[in-house]
Amino acid sequence: MFGTNCLKLESPALDSIAVSLGSGAKALASGLNVLLYCRDLLNQIAAAQAANQKELQNVMSQITDWAAKEQADLTSMQGSLAGIVAQQKALNDKITALQNSPGTLSASDQAALDGILAASDALVTQTAAVIAPTPVPAPAGP
Prior knowledge:
mainly alpha
């Protein structure tokens, strides 16, 4: 990822400075060149870090968007389940009222009771199917 072309500890310019200033200057010039290399390397690291930070923000934004959509779906499902529970209670109340009525049931009353029982059983079956856990897909990658 990081280039090695900026590591040039020897160069004609450094050699000419060293010749004119003496042997200590060559060591000084080489040290300066190492510092320049380190600066270049730190700039490359900073650029890579900035790119990584931008990518992280992008991923976090996708997660936030996905979570908001999931929350809306969960809220909708909660409303649907509350409606099913209310319907089950209403049907069970009707069944209880019919079963507690005095006397014997007429053929039409028995048919009505049988219909209500079948509808209640169907709702109970639907509710039981909804309770089964559903896997949540992970958000799509970039």
